[in-house]
Amino acid sequence: MPDLENFFGDRRAREIARHITPDLSPEYEVIDIGANDCRVTEKVARQVGSIIPVDILDTGRNKTGLELTIYDGKTLPFPEASFDAALLTFVLHHAVDPAALFDEAKRVIRPDGRIVVIEDTPASPLQRALWEVIHERQHKRDSKLLEAHDIKTAEGWQQFFQQHRMRAVRVERFRNMWISNGFYSHTAFVVEHDPTAT
Question: Which is the most buried residue in 58, 68, 76, 92, by most CB within 10 A?
């Protein structure tokens, strides 16, 4: 009997990675923050120089062979300017303090580095309602899944980046059957330091 959970999880990871890898160079050193089962990390690893997955807990679902680094959720265990890019894929809306998490990602990238953010961005009241129902059910079904705290529109996330003296240099809105059954929108942002910020 086919392992459907593994099949769908792998397909979902491939679809997410497809929206990440075009913005990463083959020589990049990357950190994947909130890597969970490391499926996305594994897909991205094929396209970059190196990648380190980190998370605040080990759910026991990492079957990739990649070593997951566990940290305290406050300070990433790496010096400033350690990476060319940081990934935050469907992570910020789970953070109790998304601003602090984003600042940590910003701290560990190099001055010419970038942060790739993918977030759920419901584009209508109906999509927002569907998002809330789906996430509530996911949280009840899976106690290891962190509760969602902060959801924004695509415009709201861009304002968030600007408040942190960064800017989105690429914004891609999409809906995907493999990620959310196409019920609501997602947005991929490539975020870099804003040289005009004061």
Answer: 92
Range of the domain at 111: 4-193
Q: How many domains does the chain have?
A: 1
Q: Which residues, listed in sequence order, are joined to residue 188 by a DSSP beta bridge?
A: 118, 172
Q: For residue 126, with 0-12 CB atoms within 10 Å meaning exposed, 13-18 middle and 19 or more buried, which class applies?
A: exposed
Confidence of residue 141 (pLDDT cuts 50, 70, 90): low
Phi, psi of 156 (to 5 degrees): -65, -40
| 113, 86 contact by CB (below 8 A) | yes
Residue 63: inside a domain: yes
Instruction: Locate 164 and state its tokens.
Output: 């942190």
Residue 73 maps to a domain? yes
Distance, CA of 23 to CA of 159 (rounded, Å)? 21
Alpha carbons 47 and 189: distance in angstroms, whole number: 18
Helix (H/G/I), strand (E/B), else coil: 190: strand
Is-contact 113 143, C-beta < 8 A?
A: no
Q: What is the mean pLDDT of the chain?
A: 88
What is the CATH classification number for the domain harbouring 89? 3.40.50.150
User: The whole model's pTM is what?
Assistant: 0.89
Q: Which is nearest to 31 in space by CA: 98, 95, 80?
A: 80
